[in-house]
Amino acid sequence: MTTATRGEPAPIPTPRPQAVLTPLNTGSEALWAYDPAPERIRPEISPSYGLFIGGTFTPSASGATMPTLNPATDETICQVARGEQADVDRAVQAARDALPAWSALPGKERGKYLFRIARRIQERARELAVLETIDGGKPIRESRDIDIPLAAAHFFYHAGWCDKLRYAFAGREPTPVGVCGQIIPWNFPLLMAAWKLAPALACGNTAVLKPAETTPLTALRLAEICKEVGLPDGVVNIITGAGETGAALVNHPGVDKIAFTGSTEVGKRIAKAVAGTKKKLTLELGGKSPNIIFEDASIDQAIEGIVQGIYFNQGHVCCAGSRLFVQESVLDDVVTRLQRRLASLRVGDPLDKNTDVGAINSKAQLETIERYLQAGRDEGATLHEVNGSTLPSAGSWCRPCFFTGVQPSQTVAREEIFGPVLAVMSFRTPDEAISRANNTPYGLAAGIWTDKGSKIFEIASRLKAGVVWLNTYNKFDPASPFGGFKQSGFGREGGMHGLRAYVRL
Ligand code: NAP
Ligand code: MG
Protein backbone atom coordinates (compact mmCIF):
# COMPACT_ATOMS: atom_id res chain seq x y z
CA MET A 1 0.00 0.00 0.00
CA THR A 2 1.32 3.46 -0.83
CA THR A 3 0.86 6.36 1.63
CA ALA A 4 0.60 10.06 0.70
CA THR A 5 3.10 12.55 2.11
CA ARG A 6 1.29 15.25 4.17
CA GLY A 7 0.02 18.06 1.95
CA GLU A 8 0.38 16.13 -1.30
CA PRO A 9 -2.54 14.51 -3.05
CA ALA A 10 -2.70 10.76 -2.54
CA PRO A 11 -1.16 8.89 -5.50
CA ILE A 12 -3.60 7.12 -7.74
CA PRO A 13 -3.29 3.41 -6.96
CA THR A 14 -2.02 1.25 -9.80
CA PRO A 15 -4.83 -1.01 -10.95
CA ARG A 16 -4.30 -4.68 -10.02
CA PRO A 17 -3.97 -6.97 -12.99
CA GLN A 18 -7.35 -8.45 -13.83
CA ALA A 19 -7.86 -12.17 -14.27
CA VAL A 20 -8.54 -13.07 -17.86
CA LEU A 21 -12.15 -14.16 -18.04
CA THR A 22 -13.08 -16.59 -20.73
CA PRO A 23 -16.67 -17.58 -21.47
CA LEU A 24 -17.25 -21.15 -20.24
CA ASN A 25 -20.79 -21.85 -21.34
CA THR A 26 -22.68 -20.21 -24.08
CA GLY A 27 -26.45 -19.91 -24.06
CA SER A 28 -28.82 -17.86 -21.99
CA GLU A 29 -26.55 -17.75 -18.95
CA ALA A 30 -22.95 -17.00 -19.82
CA LEU A 31 -20.53 -18.15 -17.14
CA TRP A 32 -16.95 -17.18 -16.69
CA ALA A 33 -13.94 -19.34 -15.95
CA TYR A 34 -10.97 -18.38 -13.83
CA ASP A 35 -7.45 -18.74 -15.12
CA PRO A 36 -5.90 -22.06 -14.12
CA ALA A 37 -4.44 -21.99 -10.60
CA PRO A 38 -2.65 -25.32 -10.28
CA GLU A 39 -1.04 -26.41 -7.05
CA ARG A 40 2.59 -26.63 -8.07
CA ILE A 41 4.37 -28.60 -5.39
CA ARG A 42 4.90 -32.28 -6.14
CA PRO A 43 5.82 -34.38 -3.12
CA GLU A 44 8.51 -36.95 -3.58
CA ILE A 45 7.00 -40.35 -4.23
CA SER A 46 9.08 -43.53 -4.22
CA PRO A 47 8.47 -46.04 -7.00
CA SER A 48 7.30 -48.55 -4.38
CA TYR A 49 6.26 -48.72 -0.72
CA GLY A 50 6.37 -51.59 1.73
CA LEU A 51 4.14 -52.46 4.67
CA PHE A 52 4.77 -50.62 7.93
CA ILE A 53 5.24 -53.31 10.55
CA GLY A 54 6.97 -52.95 13.91
CA GLY A 55 8.33 -49.54 12.97
CA THR A 56 9.95 -50.67 9.69
CA PHE A 57 8.85 -50.59 6.06
CA THR A 58 9.06 -54.13 4.73
CA PRO A 59 7.94 -55.91 1.53
CA SER A 60 5.03 -58.31 1.80
CA ALA A 61 6.03 -61.89 2.59
CA SER A 62 5.06 -63.04 -0.90
CA GLY A 63 6.59 -59.98 -2.56
CA ALA A 64 3.19 -59.13 -4.07
CA THR A 65 2.53 -55.52 -4.97
CA MET A 66 -0.33 -53.51 -6.46
CA PRO A 67 -0.41 -50.16 -8.22
CA THR A 68 -2.15 -47.05 -6.95
CA LEU A 69 -3.48 -44.79 -9.70
CA ASN A 70 -4.27 -41.13 -10.10
CA PRO A 71 -7.96 -41.23 -11.03
CA ALA A 72 -7.72 -37.84 -12.74
CA THR A 73 -5.16 -39.10 -15.27
CA ASP A 74 -5.34 -42.92 -15.05
CA GLU A 75 -1.57 -42.90 -14.52
CA THR A 76 0.10 -45.27 -12.09
CA ILE A 77 1.59 -43.24 -9.24
CA CYS A 78 3.62 -46.05 -7.64
CA GLN A 79 3.43 -49.61 -6.40
CA VAL A 80 2.49 -50.55 -2.85
CA ALA A 81 2.86 -53.90 -1.11
CA ARG A 82 -0.19 -56.18 -1.14
CA GLY A 83 -0.46 -57.53 2.38
CA GLU A 84 -1.60 -61.13 2.83
CA GLN A 85 -2.30 -63.47 5.72
CA ALA A 86 1.37 -63.86 6.71
CA ASP A 87 1.80 -60.08 6.76
CA VAL A 88 -1.31 -59.56 8.85
CA ASP A 89 0.09 -62.19 11.27
CA ARG A 90 3.35 -60.24 11.54
CA ALA A 91 1.58 -56.91 12.02
CA VAL A 92 -0.79 -58.22 14.69
CA GLN A 93 2.18 -59.77 16.50
CA ALA A 94 4.06 -56.45 16.36
CA ALA A 95 1.02 -54.64 17.78
CA ARG A 96 0.68 -57.29 20.52
CA ASP A 97 4.37 -56.99 21.43
CA ALA A 98 4.09 -53.21 21.69
CA LEU A 99 0.91 -53.28 23.77
CA PRO A 100 2.22 -53.81 27.34
CA ALA A 101 4.68 -50.92 27.26
CA TRP A 102 2.35 -48.56 25.41
CA SER A 103 -0.65 -49.20 27.61
CA ALA A 104 1.48 -48.87 30.75
CA LEU A 105 2.79 -45.48 29.68
CA PRO A 106 1.30 -42.66 31.80
CA GLY A 107 -1.44 -40.86 29.85
CA LYS A 108 0.53 -37.65 29.89
CA GLU A 109 3.40 -39.34 28.05
CA ARG A 110 1.12 -40.97 25.47
CA GLY A 111 -0.42 -37.57 24.91
CA LYS A 112 2.96 -36.10 23.99
CA TYR A 113 3.25 -38.51 21.06
CA LEU A 114 -0.23 -37.62 19.82
CA PHE A 115 0.53 -33.92 20.06
CA ARG A 116 3.70 -34.49 18.05
CA ILE A 117 1.84 -36.42 15.36
CA ALA A 118 -0.72 -33.61 15.12
CA ARG A 119 1.98 -30.98 14.77
CA ARG A 120 3.86 -33.00 12.19
CA ILE A 121 0.66 -33.39 10.14
CA GLN A 122 0.33 -29.62 10.23
CA GLU A 123 3.93 -29.13 9.21
CA ARG A 124 3.60 -31.54 6.30
CA ALA A 125 0.05 -30.40 5.46
CA ARG A 126 0.72 -29.16 1.95
CA GLU A 127 2.49 -32.32 0.91
CA LEU A 128 -0.25 -34.47 2.45
CA ALA A 129 -2.97 -32.46 0.71
CA VAL A 130 -1.34 -32.87 -2.69
CA LEU A 131 -0.86 -36.61 -2.13
CA GLU A 132 -4.49 -37.02 -1.06
CA THR A 133 -5.62 -35.24 -4.20
CA ILE A 134 -3.32 -37.15 -6.56
CA ASP A 135 -4.18 -40.52 -5.08
CA GLY A 136 -7.92 -40.10 -4.61
CA GLY A 137 -9.08 -37.42 -7.07
CA LYS A 138 -10.60 -34.96 -4.61
CA PRO A 139 -10.14 -31.22 -5.25
CA ILE A 140 -7.05 -29.75 -3.62
CA ARG A 141 -9.23 -27.13 -1.96
CA GLU A 142 -10.92 -29.87 0.03
CA SER A 143 -7.86 -31.88 0.94
CA ARG A 144 -6.10 -28.64 1.92
CA ASP A 145 -8.96 -27.03 3.86
CA ILE A 146 -10.90 -30.01 5.20
CA ASP A 147 -9.16 -33.40 5.21
CA ILE A 148 -5.70 -32.50 6.46
CA PRO A 149 -6.63 -29.82 9.05
CA LEU A 150 -9.32 -32.11 10.47
CA ALA A 151 -6.89 -35.05 10.64
CA ALA A 152 -4.49 -32.89 12.68
CA ALA A 153 -7.41 -31.67 14.82
CA HIS A 154 -8.35 -35.26 15.66
CA PHE A 155 -4.87 -35.99 16.97
CA PHE A 156 -4.82 -32.71 18.93
CA TYR A 157 -8.22 -33.40 20.42
CA HIS A 158 -7.38 -36.96 21.47
CA ALA A 159 -3.96 -35.95 22.75
CA GLY A 160 -5.88 -33.93 25.31
CA TRP A 161 -7.84 -36.97 26.48
CA CYS A 162 -4.82 -39.22 27.14
CA ASP A 163 -4.35 -38.16 30.76
CA LYS A 164 -8.04 -37.44 31.45
CA LEU A 165 -9.69 -40.74 30.57
CA ARG A 166 -10.84 -41.32 34.14
CA TYR A 167 -12.89 -38.12 33.92
CA ALA A 168 -14.54 -39.30 30.73
CA PHE A 169 -15.93 -42.34 32.57
CA ALA A 170 -16.79 -40.98 35.97
CA GLY A 171 -16.13 -43.34 38.84
CA ARG A 172 -14.84 -46.11 36.58
CA GLU A 173 -11.36 -47.19 35.63
CA PRO A 174 -10.94 -47.43 31.84
CA THR A 175 -8.40 -49.93 30.52
CA PRO A 176 -7.34 -50.43 26.89
CA VAL A 177 -9.10 -53.00 24.73
CA GLY A 178 -5.82 -54.29 23.27
CA VAL A 179 -4.88 -54.71 19.60
CA CYS A 180 -7.26 -52.85 17.27
CA GLY A 181 -7.78 -53.87 13.65
CA GLN A 182 -8.94 -50.82 11.72
CA ILE A 183 -10.21 -50.80 8.15
CA ILE A 184 -10.93 -47.59 6.28
CA PRO A 185 -12.39 -46.50 2.91
CA TRP A 186 -11.07 -44.28 0.14
CA ASN A 187 -13.20 -41.18 0.48
CA PHE A 188 -11.26 -39.46 3.32
CA PRO A 189 -8.09 -41.54 3.51
CA LEU A 190 -5.96 -39.60 6.01
CA LEU A 191 -8.93 -38.26 7.94
CA MET A 192 -10.39 -41.75 8.43
CA ALA A 193 -6.97 -42.99 9.54
CA ALA A 194 -6.92 -40.18 12.12
CA TRP A 195 -10.49 -40.97 13.25
CA LYS A 196 -9.38 -44.54 13.90
CA LEU A 197 -5.85 -44.20 15.24
CA ALA A 198 -6.14 -41.11 17.45
CA PRO A 199 -8.74 -42.48 19.93
CA ALA A 200 -7.19 -45.98 19.87
CA LEU A 201 -3.76 -44.65 20.80
CA ALA A 202 -5.13 -42.14 23.31
CA CYS A 203 -6.80 -44.98 25.20
CA GLY A 204 -3.59 -47.04 25.32
CA ASN A 205 -4.30 -49.51 22.49
CA THR A 206 -2.04 -50.52 19.63
CA ALA A 207 -3.30 -50.77 16.06
CA VAL A 208 -3.11 -52.43 12.68
CA LEU A 209 -4.66 -50.16 10.06
CA LYS A 210 -5.69 -51.19 6.56
CA PRO A 211 -6.21 -48.31 4.12
CA ALA A 212 -8.34 -48.71 1.00
CA GLU A 213 -6.75 -50.23 -2.06
CA THR A 214 -7.07 -47.08 -4.18
CA THR A 215 -5.77 -44.56 -1.60
CA PRO A 216 -2.87 -45.91 0.45
CA LEU A 217 -0.41 -43.03 0.11
CA THR A 218 -1.30 -40.67 2.95
CA ALA A 219 -1.56 -43.57 5.42
CA LEU A 220 1.99 -44.50 4.44
CA ARG A 221 3.07 -40.89 5.01
CA LEU A 222 1.41 -41.11 8.40
CA ALA A 223 3.58 -44.15 9.07
CA GLU A 224 6.63 -41.99 8.27
CA ILE A 225 5.32 -39.38 10.69
CA CYS A 226 4.98 -42.02 13.41
CA LYS A 227 8.68 -42.81 12.88
CA GLU A 228 9.63 -39.12 12.86
CA VAL A 229 7.98 -38.44 16.20
CA GLY A 230 9.59 -41.52 17.74
CA LEU A 231 6.36 -43.42 18.36
CA PRO A 232 7.43 -46.77 19.84
CA ASP A 233 7.73 -49.50 17.20
CA GLY A 234 4.62 -51.62 16.71
CA VAL A 235 2.15 -49.16 18.24
CA VAL A 236 0.90 -48.30 14.73
CA ASN A 237 1.19 -50.81 11.87
CA ILE A 238 -0.07 -50.11 8.38
CA ILE A 239 -0.92 -52.92 6.02
CA THR A 240 -1.77 -51.91 2.47
CA GLY A 241 -3.70 -54.43 0.46
CA ALA A 242 -7.07 -55.41 -0.91
CA GLY A 243 -10.36 -56.69 0.52
CA GLU A 244 -8.79 -60.05 1.47
CA THR A 245 -6.18 -58.23 3.56
CA GLY A 246 -9.02 -56.59 5.46
CA ALA A 247 -10.79 -59.93 5.86
CA ALA A 248 -7.58 -61.52 7.21
CA LEU A 249 -7.39 -58.75 9.81
CA VAL A 250 -11.06 -59.19 10.78
CA ASN A 251 -10.62 -62.95 11.24
CA HIS A 252 -7.31 -62.76 13.06
CA PRO A 253 -7.56 -64.32 16.55
CA GLY A 254 -4.95 -61.89 17.93
CA VAL A 255 -7.16 -58.85 17.32
CA ASP A 256 -9.31 -57.57 20.21
CA LYS A 257 -11.36 -54.96 18.41
CA ILE A 258 -12.42 -54.24 14.85
CA ALA A 259 -13.28 -50.71 13.75
CA PHE A 260 -14.60 -50.56 10.21
CA THR A 261 -15.70 -47.71 7.98
CA GLY A 262 -17.00 -48.65 4.58
CA SER A 263 -19.98 -50.06 2.77
CA THR A 264 -22.97 -51.60 4.51
CA GLU A 265 -22.46 -54.77 2.49
CA VAL A 266 -18.91 -55.37 3.76
CA GLY A 267 -19.96 -54.16 7.22
CA LYS A 268 -22.58 -56.92 7.40
CA ARG A 269 -20.01 -59.51 6.39
CA ILE A 270 -17.68 -58.28 9.12
CA ALA A 271 -20.46 -58.32 11.73
CA LYS A 272 -21.10 -61.99 10.87
CA ALA A 273 -17.41 -62.85 11.05
CA VAL A 274 -17.02 -61.21 14.45
CA ALA A 275 -20.26 -62.58 15.96
CA GLY A 276 -19.55 -65.17 18.62
CA THR A 277 -15.96 -64.03 19.15
CA LYS A 278 -14.76 -61.82 21.99
CA LYS A 279 -13.88 -59.01 19.59
CA LYS A 280 -15.43 -55.60 20.13
CA LEU A 281 -16.88 -54.05 16.98
CA THR A 282 -17.83 -50.61 15.68
CA LEU A 283 -19.21 -50.07 12.19
CA GLU A 284 -19.53 -46.78 10.31
CA LEU A 285 -21.43 -47.64 7.14
CA GLY A 286 -23.35 -46.10 4.29
CA GLY A 287 -26.19 -43.62 4.18
CA LYS A 288 -28.95 -42.03 2.13
CA SER A 289 -29.26 -38.85 4.11
CA PRO A 290 -32.15 -36.40 3.68
CA ASN A 291 -31.98 -32.63 3.44
CA ILE A 292 -35.31 -30.92 4.09
CA ILE A 293 -36.02 -27.39 2.83
CA PHE A 294 -39.08 -25.63 4.29
CA GLU A 295 -40.74 -22.74 2.50
CA ASP A 296 -39.59 -20.31 5.20
CA ALA A 297 -35.89 -21.15 4.69
CA SER A 298 -33.35 -18.79 3.21
CA ILE A 299 -33.32 -20.49 -0.17
CA ASP A 300 -29.92 -19.28 -1.39
CA GLN A 301 -28.30 -20.36 1.88
CA ALA A 302 -30.03 -23.72 1.59
CA ILE A 303 -28.86 -24.19 -2.02
CA GLU A 304 -25.28 -23.56 -0.94
CA GLY A 305 -25.65 -26.12 1.86
CA ILE A 306 -27.25 -28.67 -0.48
CA VAL A 307 -24.39 -28.20 -2.95
CA GLN A 308 -21.87 -28.67 -0.10
CA GLY A 309 -23.83 -31.67 1.11
CA ILE A 310 -23.85 -33.72 -2.08
CA TYR A 311 -21.40 -32.35 -4.64
CA PHE A 312 -18.61 -31.86 -2.12
CA ASN A 313 -15.95 -34.55 -2.72
CA GLN A 314 -17.87 -35.80 -5.80
CA GLY A 315 -20.56 -37.15 -3.48
CA HIS A 316 -18.03 -39.63 -2.05
CA VAL A 317 -19.28 -38.82 1.43
CA CYS A 318 -21.03 -41.38 3.61
CA CYS A 319 -23.28 -38.67 5.08
CA ALA A 320 -23.92 -36.96 1.71
CA GLY A 321 -27.32 -35.26 1.63
CA SER A 322 -28.36 -37.36 -1.35
CA ARG A 323 -32.15 -37.01 -0.94
CA LEU A 324 -33.59 -33.51 -1.06
CA PHE A 325 -37.12 -32.91 0.21
CA VAL A 326 -38.50 -29.50 -0.74
CA GLN A 327 -41.78 -27.99 0.48
CA GLU A 328 -44.09 -27.92 -2.52
CA SER A 329 -44.64 -24.14 -2.54
CA VAL A 330 -40.92 -23.47 -3.16
CA LEU A 331 -40.09 -26.52 -5.30
CA ASP A 332 -39.87 -24.69 -8.63
CA ASP A 333 -37.80 -21.91 -7.14
CA VAL A 334 -35.37 -24.38 -5.54
CA VAL A 335 -35.00 -26.39 -8.75
CA THR A 336 -34.30 -23.26 -10.80
CA ARG A 337 -31.69 -21.98 -8.37
CA LEU A 338 -30.12 -25.42 -8.05
CA GLN A 339 -29.77 -25.63 -11.82
CA ARG A 340 -28.12 -22.24 -11.92
CA ARG A 341 -25.68 -23.14 -9.14
CA LEU A 342 -24.83 -26.50 -10.65
CA ALA A 343 -24.07 -24.92 -14.00
CA SER A 344 -21.47 -22.73 -12.28
CA LEU A 345 -19.55 -25.56 -10.58
CA ARG A 346 -16.13 -26.25 -12.06
CA VAL A 347 -15.41 -29.89 -12.74
CA GLY A 348 -11.88 -30.89 -13.68
CA ASP A 349 -8.24 -31.00 -12.61
CA PRO A 350 -8.33 -31.74 -8.87
CA LEU A 351 -4.99 -29.98 -8.41
CA ASP A 352 -6.47 -26.69 -9.63
CA LYS A 353 -7.37 -24.50 -6.66
CA ASN A 354 -10.53 -23.31 -8.44
CA THR A 355 -11.92 -26.80 -9.00
CA ASP A 356 -15.18 -27.57 -7.20
CA VAL A 357 -15.71 -31.17 -8.29
CA GLY A 358 -12.73 -33.46 -8.90
CA ALA A 359 -12.30 -36.96 -10.30
CA ILE A 360 -14.37 -39.99 -9.36
CA ASN A 361 -12.17 -42.19 -7.20
CA SER A 362 -11.99 -45.20 -9.51
CA LYS A 363 -13.31 -46.61 -12.77
CA ALA A 364 -15.33 -49.12 -10.74
CA GLN A 365 -17.02 -46.33 -8.77
CA LEU A 366 -17.73 -44.40 -11.96
CA GLU A 367 -19.41 -47.49 -13.45
CA THR A 368 -21.55 -47.80 -10.30
CA ILE A 369 -22.64 -44.16 -10.59
CA GLU A 370 -23.42 -44.56 -14.28
CA ARG A 371 -25.53 -47.63 -13.54
CA TYR A 372 -27.55 -45.56 -11.07
CA LEU A 373 -27.99 -42.73 -13.57
CA GLN A 374 -29.34 -45.25 -16.07
CA ALA A 375 -31.62 -46.82 -13.45
CA GLY A 376 -33.03 -43.37 -12.63
CA ARG A 377 -33.81 -42.70 -16.29
CA ASP A 378 -35.25 -46.18 -16.84
CA GLU A 379 -37.54 -45.85 -13.86
CA GLY A 380 -38.96 -42.57 -15.15
CA ALA A 381 -37.21 -39.83 -13.16
CA THR A 382 -35.96 -36.73 -15.01
CA LEU A 383 -32.21 -36.22 -15.05
CA HIS A 384 -30.95 -32.62 -15.04
CA GLU A 385 -27.43 -32.46 -16.47
CA VAL A 386 -26.82 -28.73 -16.57
CA ASN A 387 -23.10 -28.55 -15.96
CA GLY A 388 -21.12 -27.83 -19.09
CA SER A 389 -17.53 -28.00 -17.84
CA THR A 390 -15.08 -29.38 -20.38
CA LEU A 391 -13.83 -32.65 -18.93
CA PRO A 392 -10.22 -33.86 -19.26
CA SER A 393 -9.75 -36.59 -21.86
CA ALA A 394 -8.31 -39.17 -19.41
CA GLY A 395 -9.51 -40.09 -15.93
CA SER A 396 -12.91 -40.79 -14.35
CA TRP A 397 -15.42 -37.94 -14.28
CA CYS A 398 -19.06 -37.36 -13.52
CA ARG A 399 -20.68 -33.95 -13.83
CA PRO A 400 -22.83 -32.95 -10.85
CA CYS A 401 -26.48 -33.60 -11.66
CA PHE A 402 -29.88 -34.22 -10.09
CA PHE A 403 -33.13 -36.05 -10.64
CA THR A 404 -36.62 -34.60 -10.29
CA GLY A 405 -39.92 -36.44 -10.58
CA VAL A 406 -38.51 -39.08 -8.24
CA GLN A 407 -40.83 -41.57 -6.51
CA PRO A 408 -39.78 -42.89 -3.09
CA SER A 409 -39.76 -46.45 -4.43
CA GLN A 410 -37.26 -45.69 -7.19
CA THR A 411 -33.69 -46.92 -6.94
CA VAL A 412 -32.16 -43.44 -6.94
CA ALA A 413 -34.31 -42.51 -3.92
CA ARG A 414 -33.45 -45.65 -1.96
CA GLU A 415 -29.87 -46.73 -2.63
CA GLU A 416 -26.58 -45.07 -1.84
CA ILE A 417 -25.01 -43.85 -5.11
CA PHE A 418 -21.81 -42.41 -3.62
CA GLY A 419 -21.51 -39.92 -6.45
CA PRO A 420 -22.53 -36.34 -7.31
CA VAL A 421 -26.17 -37.26 -7.91
CA LEU A 422 -29.10 -35.80 -5.99
CA ALA A 423 -32.71 -37.03 -5.87
CA VAL A 424 -35.16 -34.12 -5.47
CA MET A 425 -38.62 -34.81 -4.05
CA SER A 426 -41.36 -32.64 -2.58
CA PHE A 427 -43.59 -32.65 0.53
CA ARG A 428 -46.53 -30.64 1.83
CA THR A 429 -46.50 -30.83 5.65
CA PRO A 430 -43.75 -31.23 8.26
CA ASP A 431 -45.17 -34.65 9.23
CA GLU A 432 -44.90 -35.82 5.65
CA ALA A 433 -41.31 -34.54 5.46
CA ILE A 434 -40.36 -36.47 8.60
CA SER A 435 -41.97 -39.73 7.57
CA ARG A 436 -40.45 -39.59 4.10
CA ALA A 437 -37.02 -38.63 5.42
CA ASN A 438 -37.10 -41.53 7.89
CA ASN A 439 -38.31 -43.97 5.25
CA THR A 440 -34.88 -45.53 4.62
CA PRO A 441 -32.87 -48.43 6.01
CA TYR A 442 -30.09 -45.94 6.76
CA GLY A 443 -29.79 -43.31 9.51
CA LEU A 444 -26.48 -41.51 9.28
CA ALA A 445 -27.23 -37.79 8.88
CA ALA A 446 -29.90 -35.24 7.99
CA GLY A 447 -30.21 -31.52 7.32
CA ILE A 448 -33.04 -29.10 8.07
CA TRP A 449 -33.42 -25.69 6.43
CA THR A 450 -35.92 -23.31 8.04
CA ASP A 451 -36.15 -19.91 9.63
CA LYS A 452 -38.15 -21.19 12.62
CA GLY A 453 -36.24 -22.32 15.69
CA SER A 454 -39.22 -24.21 17.12
CA LYS A 455 -39.57 -26.20 13.90
CA ILE A 456 -35.88 -27.08 13.98
CA PHE A 457 -36.09 -28.63 17.45
CA GLU A 458 -39.32 -30.48 16.74
CA ILE A 459 -38.13 -31.96 13.43
CA ALA A 460 -34.58 -32.72 14.58
CA SER A 461 -35.87 -34.72 17.53
CA ARG A 462 -38.04 -36.85 15.24
CA LEU A 463 -35.45 -37.62 12.57
CA LYS A 464 -33.74 -40.99 12.96
CA ALA A 465 -30.20 -39.93 12.13
CA GLY A 466 -26.93 -39.90 14.03
CA VAL A 467 -26.16 -36.30 13.05
CA VAL A 468 -28.72 -33.59 12.26
CA TRP A 469 -27.36 -30.35 10.81
CA LEU A 470 -29.50 -27.22 11.11
CA ASN A 471 -29.22 -24.58 8.38
CA THR A 472 -25.82 -26.03 7.51
CA TYR A 473 -24.42 -29.34 6.30
CA ASN A 474 -21.26 -31.47 6.43
CA LYS A 475 -19.64 -29.67 9.32
CA PHE A 476 -17.26 -31.79 11.39
CA ASP A 477 -15.46 -31.31 14.66
CA PRO A 478 -13.41 -33.86 16.59
CA ALA A 479 -15.35 -33.00 19.73
CA SER A 480 -18.69 -34.04 18.30
CA PRO A 481 -19.56 -37.71 17.96
CA PHE A 482 -20.38 -39.11 14.54
CA GLY A 483 -22.13 -42.35 13.71
CA GLY A 484 -25.34 -43.88 12.50
CA PHE A 485 -28.55 -45.72 13.26
CA LYS A 486 -29.99 -48.77 11.51
CA GLN A 487 -27.91 -49.94 8.53
CA SER A 488 -25.60 -46.96 8.86
CA GLY A 489 -23.84 -48.85 11.62
CA PHE A 490 -23.29 -48.59 15.34
CA GLY A 491 -20.84 -46.98 17.71
CA ARG A 492 -19.67 -43.38 17.60
CA GLU A 493 -16.40 -41.81 16.50
CA GLY A 494 -15.20 -38.50 17.89
CA GLY A 495 -16.06 -36.70 21.08
CA MET A 496 -16.23 -38.32 24.48
CA HIS A 497 -18.63 -40.93 23.08
CA GLY A 498 -15.99 -42.11 20.61
CA LEU A 499 -13.60 -43.06 23.42
CA ARG A 500 -16.06 -45.67 24.65
CA ALA A 501 -15.20 -47.97 21.73
CA TYR A 502 -11.55 -48.13 22.76
CA VAL A 503 -11.76 -48.91 26.48
CA ARG A 504 -12.95 -51.66 28.75
CA LEU A 505 -14.62 -50.45 31.92
P1 NAP B 1 -15.85 -50.99 1.11
O1 NAP B 1 -15.79 -51.71 -0.16
O2 NAP B 1 -16.73 -51.51 2.17
O3 NAP B 1 -14.34 -50.89 1.62
C1 NAP B 1 -13.97 -50.32 2.83
C2 NAP B 1 -12.70 -50.95 3.31
O4 NAP B 1 -12.93 -52.32 3.61
C3 NAP B 1 -11.58 -50.92 2.28
O5 NAP B 1 -10.36 -50.77 2.95
C4 NAP B 1 -11.69 -52.30 1.67
O6 NAP B 1 -10.52 -52.73 1.08
C5 NAP B 1 -12.04 -53.13 2.89
N1 NAP B 1 -12.68 -54.41 2.60
C6 NAP B 1 -13.29 -54.82 1.45
N2 NAP B 1 -13.78 -56.06 1.60
C7 NAP B 1 -13.49 -56.44 2.85
C8 NAP B 1 -13.76 -57.62 3.61
N3 NAP B 1 -14.43 -58.64 3.11
N4 NAP B 1 -13.32 -57.67 4.88
C9 NAP B 1 -12.66 -56.63 5.42
N5 NAP B 1 -12.38 -55.51 4.76
C10 NAP B 1 -12.79 -55.39 3.49
O7 NAP B 1 -16.28 -49.50 0.96
P2 NAP B 1 -15.75 -48.46 -0.06
O8 NAP B 1 -16.46 -48.68 -1.34
O9 NAP B 1 -14.26 -48.43 -0.04
O10 NAP B 1 -16.24 -47.11 0.63
C11 NAP B 1 -17.46 -46.56 0.37
C12 NAP B 1 -18.47 -46.89 1.46
O11 NAP B 1 -17.99 -46.47 2.73
C13 NAP B 1 -19.77 -46.18 1.26
O12 NAP B 1 -20.82 -47.08 1.41
C14 NAP B 1 -19.80 -45.14 2.38
O13 NAP B 1 -21.06 -44.77 2.80
C15 NAP B 1 -19.02 -45.80 3.44
N6 NAP B 1 -18.42 -44.83 4.33
C16 NAP B 1 -18.98 -44.67 5.58
C17 NAP B 1 -18.46 -43.73 6.46
C18 NAP B 1 -19.06 -43.56 7.84
O14 NAP B 1 -18.44 -42.93 8.68
N7 NAP B 1 -20.21 -44.08 8.12
C19 NAP B 1 -17.35 -42.98 6.10
C20 NAP B 1 -16.81 -43.15 4.84
C21 NAP B 1 -17.35 -44.10 3.97
P3 NAP B 1 -10.26 -52.47 -0.48
O15 NAP B 1 -10.28 -51.00 -0.69
O16 NAP B 1 -8.93 -53.02 -0.68
O17 NAP B 1 -11.36 -53.16 -1.22
MG1 MG C 1 -5.07 -44.02 -6.03
Provide the descriptors you would attach to this structure in a database record.
505 residues, alpha/beta, Aldehyde Dehydrogenase, Chain A, domain 1, Aldehyde Dehydrogenase, Chain A, domain 2, 2 domains, seven-stranded mixed β-sheet, six-stranded mixed β-sheet, 16 helices, 22 strands, globular, binds magnesium ion
Structural class: alpha/beta
Q: Give me the CATH superfamily of the largest domain.
A: Aldehyde Dehydrogenase, Chain A, domain 1
CATH class of the largest domain: Alpha Beta
Low-pLDDT stretches:
1-7, 15-30
Shape: globular
Helix tally equals 16
* Helical percentage: 25-40%
What does this structure look like?
With 505 residues, this protein is an alpha/beta fold. It has two domains: 48-284 and 487-504, Aldehyde Dehydrogenase, Chain A, domain 1 (3-Layer(aba) Sandwich); 290-474, Aldehyde Dehydrogenase, Chain A, domain 2. The chain is built from 16 helices and 22 strands. The chain has helices at residues 85-104, 107-123, 125-136, 140-161, 165-168, 189-202, 217-228, 243-251, 264-274, 299-311, 331-343, 363-378, 411-414, 430-438, 453-462, 495-499, and strands at 22-23, 32-33, 48-49, 51-53, 56-58, 65-70, 75-81, 175-176, 179-183, 206-210, 236-238, 257-261, 280-284, 290-293, 323-327, 382-384, 401-404, 421-427, 445-449, 467-470, 489-490, 503-504. Magnesium ion is lined by residues 68-69, 135-136, 214-215.
